[in-house]
């Protein structure tokens, strides 16, 4: 590595170390932290903006625990200078100290951010201190200068006893605090080496004896710097970073200037802290600490404001206060000094030079829904994909529409553009004012707002504009001296859109392409200047705007990841949460309203996850309510698809006989679950291997449908020996409670279309009149409840078939599959299609479907040699576990993982589907033992999908007979009901029965007689 690469590696690690120190400071009170961090502001509105930012970070827990924070505005909004602001901060702390606390022994940092930001006007209202830095912090937050400073300052308190560190609020400095030793010096200037070309625009220190500052030169030309000996052999100087440290003694002396006997003296305060004297921290407090400085030179040093007798008197007293103290020159190498001083510097940093800081994790794209780095540099922007953005542009805190074009070398800030074309080399920035109105400021990227009327403005000068359109100074200025900063150019408008159009008009005026009537219209408007708009800005609205854009971006990216089938956990990491959680939840909910069922179900399940994560309700709903909404979205799609494909035909709907009876076997699922269940099968298709079974030598499912003379609907459950009669159609539509004894019966009538899902046109009597009588639906299932053998769905299939048959409707297998699938959704049990297919189609078969809302089922029968079928029959055993479970509870856990796109779960399901095909292959080639091994493998995968699929009792049953088995699994979704095993070759069912009886005796764990139904219909 070359020297530059070594330095970058060092600074990159320093950056990471600073983050570790920072995290420690916000995590424990044991950290060596600042007692106070003071932020200075130019006025109350700016202070309000700072306070909002600080409060936000307090809520996030991102401020050092032991540190007190205060924002102090210049008194009465009068500019008292950085020196006056420093004294004002010491005054505040002295008034807030408790008991015997001595300010001399405190560790204090002052972040000076009370300027007007004239050279970067888009940051005037809310201050440069909280302007963005182009990186996402490790915690996912967009960084600001403040955050960078707080992080870098975390390691300094441990390097000092007490004292005051003054820091400029427009500079980021990357350095290693281990290079600092502030325990023995009176004061210290923290400096870095930089080229003399850069140094001439800043303060420069000259190093004297014992590494003490001998002179402090402020913005001197190269010739003066060289003549003074400030330039070394590498043509570099010790530049002033603005980071100045005063030890406790100097801090006490400064406090003495405004106090008497330790108490604040208001008369003294008024003398030193005012807009006439306007003390400058560097000129008035740092300059006299240089060894070679004299009082005469000190009095000649350029002040913040103007020379005055009051300033001279104050400087005399400050000289007495500081005389005799020295300033140590602390060189930090390697280090980086990054100044956010002017619009041009900002543009160069964000666009041209950003690559220089990649080793710090800085990037062109920070918080944007698009990741296209050819579309300019972006910070916190929502950009529509078709927008044309020049790569040499910088956009922040904005919304950019699809029809927008952004020109080269332009800066866009705090604005929403819909279809505008922004020219080259302009800054376009919108502000909301306190009265709710808007102003859009436009100026050139190279314009200096401090310049006079003859200085550059866009394509011309303000003087030329006035001359061309015969305007007077009074038309633009009401204060002197006239400058771009105080020129009333920008109309105050009722909407942002109107303000933007006036900004483009101003551009056309500067380019001499505006029409005369437009200029007249512009002159007649109520206009404001950069200065006055800054002073009347609604800082709360500005910060809220930034927050809303960030929320929109994070939600957009979250939605994008969900749509791309990324893991939900990854998508949720994009969200900010915290204080923005409710707003993010609301935005997610809004996105779901007109979305596909896939996106709806994922948004709702995401909201459920957020409820669980935050341990709170969101927008008035609980986690389980959002989960139910996810499945409601699935339900509506499945039901709609079934009814569209197999509509009820009222023209044919009449009783064609008085009674129809249907008997069906149950099914055993060898492999494939839950790939047949929605939503997995809807998105990926499903694969199942199963067989139809007789229990105890007969079909256990029996359904009878009869016509009644009375115009009522009666449901009967023969096995439960209960019945109920209905005359109200809404009672039948109320079928979503899986604990309702007749939920299945009700759902069947709705799924077949006999009972309209939501139509209010028909009463139950109307419908029964039309079909020619009342209807009795009677069911019987000689299978334990919660068996895992597909009982409820097969009962539903028998019901659908019987109802459709007696009413002259479609009784094809495809229709029955689809309508039972819909009935399961109506009951909210969330079943799939394997049960009805397994019971309706006899034999052993591989069942498959392709992705789609409507599941078109393909059945592929296995053709087994008679001896292999007999071996399978001899070795296959059903064991009742003695437990019952509700399939809905087990399935939800599995299917939630599918909705979340859990990678492990999806991989497990894919493997399960492959195993189905491998099992078919092994059976057809006659290897029952290999088939058995795959049964066990899929069981292990199912347990990974859902820990509730098995339990201690189930595993104990398997353990008891493990030496007798080659394969084992649950039936259905598991959690109870029946278990299936494949015996070792040569082991008999009676041996297994004896083993189970010896252990479980009369506890309900027993072998059930089962027989494969091989009389496949249609001669197969």
TrEMBL record:
Q: Does the keyword NAD apply?
A: no
Root EC class: transferase
Which EC number(s) are documented for this chain? Answer: 2.7.1.52
KW Nucleotide-binding (keyword) present: yes
Domain (S1-like): give its ranges: 117-174
Provide this UniProt record's keywords sorted from A to Z: ATP-binding, Initiation factor, Kinase, Nucleotide-binding, Protein biosynthesis, Transferase
Its recorded name reads: Fucokinase
Q: Which organism is it from?
A: Syntrophobotulus glycolicus (strain DSM 8271 / FlGlyR)
